[in-house]
Amino acid sequence: MSVLVLGTVGLDTIKTPFGSRKDILGGSASHFSMAARHFTDVHLSAVIGEDFSPSRIDFFRKKGIGTSSLYKDKGSTFRWKGEYKGSMNCAITLNTALGVLADFKPQLTEKERGIKYIFLANTDPDIQFALLGKLRSPRLVALDSMNYWISNKRSSLLRVLQRVDIFVANEEEARSLTGEANLLKAAKSLRSFGPETILIKKGEHGSFLYSGKFMICLPAFLVEKVVDPTGAGDTFAGGFMGYLAKAGKINQEVLKKAIAYGTVAASFNVEDFGVDRTAALTAGDLRKRMALFGRMVCFDGAKNNHKSVFFA
Amino acid sequence: MSVLVLGTVGLDTIKTPFGSRKDILGGSASHFSMAARHFTDVHLSAVIGEDFSPSRIDFFRKKGIGTSSLYKDKGSTFRWKGEYKGSMNCAITLNTALGVLADFKPQLTEKERGIKYIFLANTDPDIQFALLGKLRSPRLVALDSMNYWISNKRSSLLRVLQRVDIFVANEEEARSLTGEANLLKAAKSLRSFGPETILIKKGEHGSFLYSGKFMICLPAFLVEKVVDPTGAGDTFAGGFMGYLAKAGKINQEVLKKAIAYGTVAASFNVEDFGVDRTAALTAGDLRKRMALFGRMVCFDGAKNNHKSVFFA
Q1: Less CB within 10 Å around the terminal CB: N or C of chain B?
Q2: Which of residues 158-197 of B touch A (CB under 8 A)?
């Protein structure tokens, strides 16, 4: 099954303790697709400006990513400038220039309208809602948002959430949308907005998923070399959605493995600037780190026999 | 194999958003032993004052916890008064009264001197060192400390660390002792102080273990009902050490399961004040939650076949 991602394709200028880069390929849809492409066909719904080099469009195509709905508009490509300091846990935004993003109205090809697995990356909830209106019969819709929309377009966000299956939120978003300090209570409360499944991203602390029936909890895959965390959350979502689309079914085991793939994909993303590491990633790299991750988190007998010898 | 814990037995006065308690049983050794007792014999090395009621000593004995070296001294029992607010992630200490703890010199019975599994809970590193001198041939020594000793008795701490196998530290302690912001780098660096294995506690975010050869990473077991987090770290250590002592061998699989048991034990501890929940815990409670935890973190095929159908 193919995946469609609505998001941003932009140019990032980033400074971290490990160096700096100017106008490198960034944006949620770029990071998402570099992970999801390992599992299935990925189609972009995004806008770029006249200054976006054709070689960069070719770059997506060579990675097998569908660019039919990567729309080029008059004006400048979306740009973000940010910096990370110290423990690099959160970005300091120095500048945001929306450019062509300000008037973006997503269009899809006739074929893309039939795509079943949809990821609505963080953007204006009205644009997310508009995209859903163009789809014939999506099977699984996941949505990411941010505190800005929670504060400034709450009713629009609540409207689109009613049509979402999986709400991907970070800790702060979950707490601010529900007013619950306890994350598990917050996740339960988020389900009342519509999504059956809540996936909470905790950055370097991993993630957890809450459905009405079960929970999944996985740590992050720790790496020593954290060079640039930009896009880690979107890369995580790309691995997660890519695996779900490939699997073609949804249950606790499939969701768990999807989160594990997302976690591993994100751990590669942070090891270099922009999409440098994930663009170069091979299936073998992913497979090896998944095996390592499995040995780190899965304990003996966890799946089968819990009648431990230690309890009479 | 039996476990010996050097730590505190004290009286806690605690206020949380869910209520308050005065002079309830607390202290690192109390919390530790309530978890470890499910796996093996536990012996306390701690001091209490004349005001410590005999019924509380009986309480330990009825739980099968060895009190031969729970020494009663002239003076008052160690008391701690604290409060938790908001997300309850860290305690606000309102008062600490050392009492008999100030002059504590641990003594062991001849039989206890032969115990092989030792947990040195957070206390003065000189006292920790003195206890090690009384042991005939410990097989596994784990040590917990705190920032106070790192700042004020660094050389004493470094001396005892040279004789420790597993250093249990929280994130801040690991960072402050090594000067490394990246936790994985910090864990690697901590090994240079002597301990072969480093176990980093991240509270509600779980824990990870680093040895020279492998890593283990597990999330916390999330609960909705966090009433009082006091002693969660010591309860975690109790489940961890108790399982290791029972298993009688050390390898990646055993350590992983030990951390899982510690995690599950800690998740019960926070559900009520003091040791109320862990004292009432049954083997069945632990077993059920371990099974649930396994289903939350262990993904399909993680242990065995990683030649996923998704990669050619």
Answers
A1: C
A2: 181-185, 188
